[in-house]
Amino acid sequence: MFLGTYPAPSASTKPTQLISEQVSHHPPITAYHINTPYNITLTGYNGADLSFKSSYIVVRQTGHAQLTITLPDNTKETFYITLPDLKIQGLQSFVPYVELDRTTYIMSSTGYLGTIDYAGKGWLSGQKNSFTAILAKGQDTLYKINGQWTGESTSISVLHPAQKNIPFWNAKVNHPTHIVVAPVPAQSPWESRKVWEHVASAIEKNDVETAGRYKSPIEIGQRKMRDEETRMGESWKPRFFKWVDNDVVASELRGELAGLTGHGGLGGKVGSWVFTPDEDDQKALENGELFRGA
């Protein structure tokens, strides 16, 4: 697990909470839930398929995310978000860096659709971390946005052509807020920094032998737990998440996305890892105890 909070902007506001958990080892899949004090939540899961090219590595992300906004009248808007591919560049120069690649979609329950095309720096031209986005309602394009997601971007109104080059986002002045986690000695035995503390410390010292010596007992211990579960006729269950074969909301939104873009297949069921804390964990979430260590 990895648990943490983002600091609240004021003393009267609760911090934003992040709960993530590895829900599968083969293949590796991580589920996550972000809860904000603004009636906005984000829940999703990520897997990865790797392929190697001549000068870079392609990471095809599997899974999706759903962002839900609860409005003052208690109605909800949901946004189905597909995931971008990743490119690990710079291998030949021994200075690796990651870029987003290909296309992602954000399909809203209100009928709005965001399409984002990512591009990176090529051999001869282009800028790192570039994107072009279109916001549409049905088949009608409303806005176009382009720039760098790590830099500056601007928008153009299609309906009002005079509204062009309007500043949209400037990452250079909007600095990221860093997550806060409990000190490693205070973390529970299942939190990732606690589990891998000695391995990470050895890697930082470039001590491969010591890292391997600490890594092996972790992996062997997990195999023994799986063997014991098999012997007892039990199956391992994640703590915070449950797999749902047919996520009705996600299925409907992916169907709408497919109808508008052809992406996502021709409808059908969509499965999701759903955030399902038990009563004790829910109380620990509400009072913040979950993020203060063991």
Question: Could you give a quick summary of the protein structure above?
Answer:
The protein is α+β, with helices and mostly antiparallel strands. Helix content is 20%, strand content 39%. The chain has helices at residues 192-195, 197-204, 208-232, 248-261, 279-287; strands at 2-6, 16-24, 29-35, 40-52, 57-62, 64-70, 76-82, 85-89, 97-108, 112-119, 130-137, 140-148, 152-157, 166-170, 241-244, 272-275.
The helix/strand class is alpha+beta
Helix content: 10-25%
Biggest sheet, strands in spatial order?
4-5-8-9-7-6
The general outline is globular
- Termini, distance in Å? 13 Å
Catalogue the unreliable spans. Answer: none
Task: Outline the biggest β-sheet.
Answer: 6 strands, antiparallel, barrel
* Total count of strands: 16
Averaging pLDDT over every residue, what do you get? 92
The value of Rg in angstroms is 22 Å
Percent of residues in β-strands: 35-45%
Secondary-structure element order, N to C: EEEEEEEEEEEEEEHHHEHEH
SS field, number of helical segments? 5
